[in-house]
Amino acid sequence: MAGRLQFWFEFASTYSFLSAMRIEEAATARGITVEWQPFLLGPIFAAQGWTTSPFNLYPAKGRYMWRDMERLCISRGLQFHPPDPFPQNGLKAARLALVARDAGAAAAFVRSVYVSEFCLGQDISDSAVLAQCWAEAGLSPDLMTRATAPAIKTALFEQTAKAQALDLFGAPSFVAGGELFWGDDRLDEALNWAASI
Amino acid sequence: MAGRLQFWFEFASTYSFLSAMRIEEAATARGITVEWQPFLLGPIFAAQGWTTSPFNLYPAKGRYMWRDMERLCISRGLQFHPPDPFPQNGLKAARLALVARDAGAAAAFVRSVYVSEFCLGQDISDSAVLAQCWAEAGLSPDLMTRATAPAIKTALFEQTAKAQALDLFGAPSFVAGGELFWGDDRLDEALNWAASI
């Protein structure tokens, strides 16, 4: 039986972008199915007293992260344009990702949002930007309105509660067979684990 | 000309242990010289309001780190025995590392301390443990007393000030040609960078 890997991502997260751009191809090569799991880090950070990204709270760590991202994007052939402001508000995008997942287009939509945000430096809280991503993922425009339905709002709340129950503390995170892996640096280990169970 | 790579390590740091165990061999294979740079994270953490390791301050991150270390040690064939208490007080060990470096035995002594701390779970603030590490590194017992000389105390203070000037915020960190790389996960990238300049 092919393994499954949960991919927990947050749209504001720079390293989630890196994983989103390569996870589907890497998983497919190992016969693993990716479960796209949007969630919000805000409530998790708030619970430990953080009001913004740790990359803003800790400036040296922030300066390092931006340079690290530049280097990694060069090595992976990705254009990189940091969004302003950072972090972006990914609430609408995360709700849309749940609708896109129901429509079988999670990977395409999520990647399109990340490209807009981190390759083009666009504002992903802007509905026009999201509509463009929606179209690029081949999704029908009338499906977009579902993102504001109470059921989707509740579903995103439950995603974040599930992330907390899984003891997630950052993004990207990967879960397979009860094992948690954190960070784009652990994607290969997570895939190996998923393949082994 | 062969490149040089600064290896900034803190004895309390779990991931510094992982890098210390493999950096010399990996660097030698690329013709790179390792500069062993002990420093203390305490003052750097204190400057941002932290009174202990972030792995203690943020329990979910701490739980993850211990499991991650277990998995990595298994994959690298390293015995793993977390020290108690964590973090260990590495002040004496860091001063001794400077003396050992002057004597040309930094790598051997530093690895011996890390093995005592993280493979055997010993207390590295214990002078008897450090004397054992000193002997294992082939260093003369009478050299040990130099670690309490004012010049060495000053030298360690200056190491930590230099780390802050380099914008370091954690360990292990690697510096080559003005580029900073953070974390055992970036050792290969740091070596590649050092080899390219």
TrEMBL record, chains A, B:
Q: Might you give the EC number(s) for this enzyme?
A: 5.99.1.4
As for family, the record states: Belongs to the GST superfamily. NadH family.
Catalytic center at which residues?
Answer: 13
- What top-level branch of life does the organism fall under? Bacteria
Q: Which GO terms describe its molecular function?
A: 2-hydroxychromene-2-carboxylate isomerase activity; glutathione peroxidase activity; glutathione transferase activity
- Keywords recorded for this protein, A-Z: Isomerase
Q: Which source organism?
A: Phaeobacter gallaeciensis
Q: Which residues form the DSBA-like thioredoxin domain?
A: 5-189
Entries under Gene3D superfamilies matching the protein: Glutaredoxin
Q: Which reaction does it catalyse?
A: 2-hydroxychromene-2-carboxylate = (3E)-4-(2-hydroxyphenyl)-2-oxobut-3-enoate
Q: Which InterPro entries match?
A: DSBA-like_thioredoxin_dom (IPR001853), GST_Kappa/NadH (IPR051924), HCCAis_GSTk (IPR014440), NahD-like (IPR044087), Thioredoxin-like_sf (IPR036249)
Q: What is this protein called?
A: 2-hydroxychromene-2-carboxylate isomerase
Q: One biological-process term from Gene Ontology?
A: glutathione metabolic process
